[in-house]
# Entry
Amino acid sequence: MTPLPQDITSIRDVAHLEELLSEPTEAVIHAIGQLEGDIVVLGVGGKMGPSLATMAKRASVAANNKRHVIGVARFSSAKVEQELQRTGIETVRADLLDRESLARLPDAPNVIYMAGMKFGSTENESLTWAMNSFLPGLVSERYATSRIVAFSTGNLYGLSRVAQGGSREQDTPNPVGEYAMSCLGRERIFEYFSRTNQTKMAILRLNYATELRYGVLLDIAQRVHTGQPVPLLMGYLNALWQGDANAMSLLALSYVSHPPNVINLAGPELLSVRRLAEEFGDRMAKPVRFEGEESDDALLSNAEKAFGLFGRPRVTAQELVAWIADWVSSGGETLAKPTHFENRAGRF
# Structure
């Protein structure tokens, strides 16, 4: 991937952040330029959807392609919808679980599926299964002739030994908790319709996308900054700059197949929570407190397959730590949505 400018030592504000998150790489511009037809992003209103859709639109403009990029969501936040419209993205308000609403959506040969439920799943298991396992069947029927890139999660692998270096795509899933089990259900339903209808798909097991307002690195930085102890039981993690995750997801439209092409999306570094916290402490001049001890297993993914297809991430973990430390120290805006990365029981 084309690297970001090396002189970015800090990110000024939300506008600067959004610009970087949605900046298409040369590879994305080329791939989108070769792609035929409109792109529909289902579930565009989430944490990652707006910057991904904006990257798709920016890449289309850069490639002189006049395609429509259409974002579909309930849009509980009118601000998100308005910002998408300002970037040239067409928006459609819809409840995807409503069959009539789904049937009225625009046709498109390219679909990015981002809908799903994680947080609050423990209190509402039936809706979790409906969103994560039933809805994929409805979408597969509605867009049976389209290319579909569907987001999934590395949580469905379950815990793997740190010495193993992260779960790989061929590993047998071992989901813990109803959220992860319902996500495995999502994959199985997509796989069924891919095989039945010969729908070309890619399934992206993401673990974890992060930026300055949300993500596991922000969670650790905030704990250090406010003097809270950093839990160590889930002692290791992967983190991937959300801009890189956006780029890889759009490139995946060129790597769909039937049955689905399963691809891990994760950062290349196996990161120690203890060392991350200590580095945040050094950068923010804050003492660091810990609770618990590291286990010999964690939720970890190996993304070498993705790097072979899409190239390596542009932003390193070291750069992310520097940006986030500066952002937190200066009181930068956050989404106020903890990831609960330390959760080992699969309850969200």
